[in-house]
Structure formats: C-alpha cells, structure tokens
Write a structure and sequence with these properties.
Layout (H helix, E strand, L loop, with lengths): L4 E7 L3 H12 L5 E3 L13 E2 L9 E2 H14 L3 E3 L3 E5 L5 E5 L2 E10 L3 E3 L5 H5 L5 E2 L2 H4 L7 E5 L3 H10 L5 E5 L9 H9 L3 E4 L2 E9 L3 E9 L5 E3 L4 E4 L3 E3 L30 E3 L11 H21 L1
The chain binds NADPH dihydro-nicotinamide-adenine-dinucleotide phosphate.
Length: about 300
C-alpha cells in the first residue's frame, strides 16, 4: 500500500494539470499526475496557439503541451498513463483507481478538463474521424475544395464555419432554431460570407457513408416541417459546446447545473476538504489555456497550504 501513496495526486495533463504539477513539485510535494485518456488535453487537437503569453510568434498546441510536460518532469513529477475510473474522497487518504491500480493521496487536484459534445447519433459515432469531427482547426484542412457542414448556432459554430471557408468550397451551417445564440458580431460575419449557407431549424438526421470511403453525405431534418434533405457534404463539424469531464465525481463532489465542479469563492477548494479543482473542469466561462494554467497554479498553492495545516 505504502508504495502507492503520494502526498498529492493530480488528475489530467492539460495546462491546469501540468501547471499544478510544476508548482507542487517545486514545493517538494513529489506529485503524481495521471494523464487521462488524451495526454496533453484539448490543446493537442488544435494547431497554432496565438494567445498564450510568452510566445510572440505563436506555438503549436502539441509543442506547448510537450514543453509543459518536460517542465513538470524536470522538477520530478511522476507521470502515470491511464484514465481514472474510480475516486473515493469519503475518507483520508483518498483513493484513486486508474487501470488496475489503486493509489492513495493526502490531497487531490482535479484537472480533468472538458470534452467536445457530440449529437449522439449512431452514424455520427461510426464516422468519427472519417468525416465527423469536433475540431475545425484540426481537421478543416483535409476538406480543401469540398463541401462541409457545421452543426450548432453558438460562437464556436459561427467561428468554425468562418474558419472552414478558408479551405472549403461551401459551408452549410446547420442550426436547430431560427436564430443564432452566438454574438451579433460573429453572426454578421457569417451572414455576409458568401461561402456559408445557413440551414435553419434543422438537425442532422444521419451521417451517410461506407466503411471504405468514410462519410459521403449528410441528411438533415427540418424540425418544423419534418422534411429530410441531403447536403452532399463529406465532412460534418460538430460545434455544440463542451461537457466537463466529471463523470467519476458524480455524487461525490458538488457540481453546478451544467455538471462543472463548484469551487469556493476565490479558491480552488471543492466541496470535499483536501480536494481541489482547476482548469476547464471547474470553469464554464473562460475556458482558456492561460486561465487553466492560472488556476492550476492556485490549486497547487491551495493544496500545499492545506497540507501544511493538517
Ligand atoms: P454554446 O453552448 O454557446 O452553443 C452551443 C450551440 O449548439 C447552440 O446554438 C445550441 O443550440 C447548439 N446545440 C446544443 N446541443 C445541440 C444538439 N444536441 N443538437 C443541435 N444543436 C445543439 O457553445 P459554444 O461552444 O458555441 O460556446 C461556448 C462558450 O464559449 C460561449 O460562452 C461562447 O460565447 C464562447 N466562445 C467564444 C468565442 C469567441 O468569442 N471567439 C469562440 C467560441 C466560443 P441552441 O442555440 O438552440 O441552444
């Protein structure tokens, strides 16, 4: 049991998790960080990051996350590959299960981030990464000169539709209502863009394709008339928001109505003493790499002080 005990365990390897690790390691807490299913988190699915301070020429998402990992390793962070499937914070030490191993810790920092939402159709799952994507900046380039569809009516969908017109011949913006949720400025830009056609009051009905070619067409349904039509697109970019990765904390930690972890005013403290949350998993508002890194730093400091008090 003893060899599986750590002072601090950090869950997640996005900017929040790595920053928490760097601070905790430099405070001599010898943290262990469990990667989660996608090491490096959401930034590894973007290309150029232009708004992370300190990189005046921009930096590739993977490169930024590799740098953060190296920085955490330099101060002797232990990295464990795996996905956490069970957490028990009802007693101390806390218990965290990843793969077939259970670890214990005195403090726990949760930085599990958020993931893109999908519609939930079977055909969507079938053609994921073979026509269906949730990241225009990652995959848009593959649809050069082709027709694609973007699903959603918020700022993400409006932004992605505009971005895709840099490569694609035509972009259908499929929205389930007859007005956008996104900002007026973004709406104006989209409505003026001749390459974008808005398909109002409509939702995807089926992604059509075969195993060999991947997605070959998209059927959408008008929710008012029931009419189904095909758009002739080989790509579908889903931009309907994000969900926090909080499944394993259900019933264990307090969450808001959107399932984000709730932290106490001006701190990273959660509803369980000794458990801290940082980054997108506790932030539905800013969701930026730099704010995630900032709260990661806060979580490590909060954990360090809390441990000192014990
Ligand atoms: P939002 O929650 O703002 O928008 C989600 C959109 O997807 C809505 O239009 C919603 O429809 C639609 N939707 C949700 N579920 C479904 C479904 N099952 N089927 C079909 N459509 C669905 O998420 P965003 O990711 O767009 O934005 C999140 C936050 O990030 C916002 O605060 C936004 O302002 C911000 N952001 C800002 C940007 C910028 O300023 N440059 C860029 C990107 C995001 P409905 O409207 O009917 O609910």
């Amino acid at each position: 049991m003893e060899e599986n005990h750590r002072k601090v365990i950090i869950l997640g390897t996005g900017p929040a998790g790595y920053t928490a690790a760097i601070y905790a390691a430099r405070a001599n807490l010898k943290p262990m960080i469990i990667t989660g299913p996608q090491k490096g988190g959401q930034l590894t699915t973007t290309t150029e990051i232009e708004n992370f301070p300190g990189f005046s020429k921009g930096i590739d998402g993977n490169q930024l996350m590799n740098e953060m990992e190296q920085q955490a390793l330099r101060f002797e962070t232990e990295i464990v590959f795996g996905e956490v499937t069970e957490v028990d914070v009802s007693n101390r030490p806390f218990k965290v299960t990843a793969g077939n191993k259970t670890y214990t810790s005195d403090a726990l920092i949760i930085a599990t981030g958020a993931s893109a939402r999908y519609i939930g159709m079977e055909s969507e799952t079938r053609f994921k990464n073979r026509g269906v994507s949730a990241c225009a900046t990652c995959d848009g380039f593959f649809y050069k000169g082709q027709k694609v569809a973007v699903i959603g009516g918020g700022d993400s969908a409006l932004e992605e539709a505009g971005y895709l017109t840099n490569f694609c011949e035509k972009v259908y913006l499929v929205h389930r209502r007859d007005e956008f949720r996104g900002s007026k400025a973004m709406q104006d830009r989209v409505l003026k863009n001749e390459k974008i056609e808005v398909v109002w009051d409509s939702v995807p009905e089926e992604v059509i394709g075969d195993d060999e070619k991947g997605m070959t067409d998209l059927a959408v349904k008008n929710v008012k008339t029931g009419e189904v039509k095909r758009l002739g697109t080989k790509g579908m970019f889903v931009a309907i928001g994000h969900e926090p990765n909080t499944g394993v904390f259900k019933g264990i930690l307090d969450m808001d109505d959107k399932q984000y972890l709730v932290t106490k005013n001006g701190s990273t403290r959660t509803s369980a003493e000794g458990v801290f949350a940082c980054g997108d998993v506790a932030d539905s508002k800013y969701r930026q790499a730099v704010t995630a890194a900032g709260t990661g730093c806060m979580a490590a400091i909060d954990a360090e002080r809390w441990l000192a008090e014990q």
